[in-house]
Write a structure and sequence with these properties.
With 218 residues, the chain is of the alpha/beta class. It contains 8 helices and 5 strands.
Length: 218
């Protein structure tokens, strides 16, 4: 390391999915790598017994909060899947770290976003993820169009008037919307909406009749 280059401050993140697994191997290698690189370790963030399928992890949350405050210059992990097993979450996380001015190094994957090669790899991964998302969207749109052309009804199947009538009858007998939904297998919100529409229709029919009666008596 050049004498004129400022010493970087690094945060280490480690994760294992179960209690039986240990983070010792990850931490030992990352500490040694940081020492060889001449980096100062700011803090070690460890998520024990947390899945990498989402980012709802306490140590991960603390690490990202520190990154937003620029508490360290670089995030170091053992492998990419320790940070996240979701490609979408991984891209979002790395993008946020980059926007905070935080570099990222994955030790086992030889990925370093502070180098031109590392930046290129990250951009390619992001482009592939965006391409995959666009392909999925196009397939969904094409599938919906094909279904419409074949005359298929999209969305939830309609609920019969008989079922709605039973729901309104049960409501008039004092049953709650939740219990009605459980008995008839209908969403509680659907029953509420239908009941409001029925009451509005009845009210609109009564108003003209009352107005007409008033004009005759006058």
């Amino acid at each position: 390391m050049s004498l004129h280059e400022p010493t970087k401050t690094v945060a280490i993140y480690a994760r294992v999915s179960t209690d039986r697994q240990k983070v010792d191997m990850q931490l030992n290698e990352l500490r040694q790598f940081a020492a060889r690189s001449g980096w100062n370790i700011y803090e070690e963030y460890i998520d024990q017994s947390f899945s990498g399928s989402n980012t709802k992890r306490p140590a991960f949350t603390d690490m990202m909060d520190a990154a937003r405050k620029r508490k360290f210059d670089l995030l170091l992990v053992w492998k990419l899947d320790r940070l996240s097993r979701s490609l979408k979450d991984l891209i979002v996380t790395l993008d946020e770290l980059g926007s905070c001015g935080i570099d990222f190094v994955s030790y086992d994957n030889n990925l370093d976003t502070s180098t031109p090669t590392g930046k290129l790899v990250f951009q390619i991964v992001g482009a592939v993820a965006e391409f995959e998302k666009e392909i999925i969207r196009e397939r969904v749109v094409a599938g919906l169009a094909t279904a419409r052309n074949k005359g298929r009804r999209l969305g939830r199947p309609p609920i019969s008037k008989y079922v709605y009538d039973q729901a309104l009858k049960m409501r008039s007998e004092g049953l709650s919307y939740r219990n009605i939904g459980k008995v008839l297998g209908i969403d509680e919100g659907t029953i509420r909406k239908r009941a409001r529409n029925e009451w509005r229709a009845e009210s609109s029919e009564k108003v003209p009749a009352a107005a007409k009666t008033g004009s005759i008596s006058a």
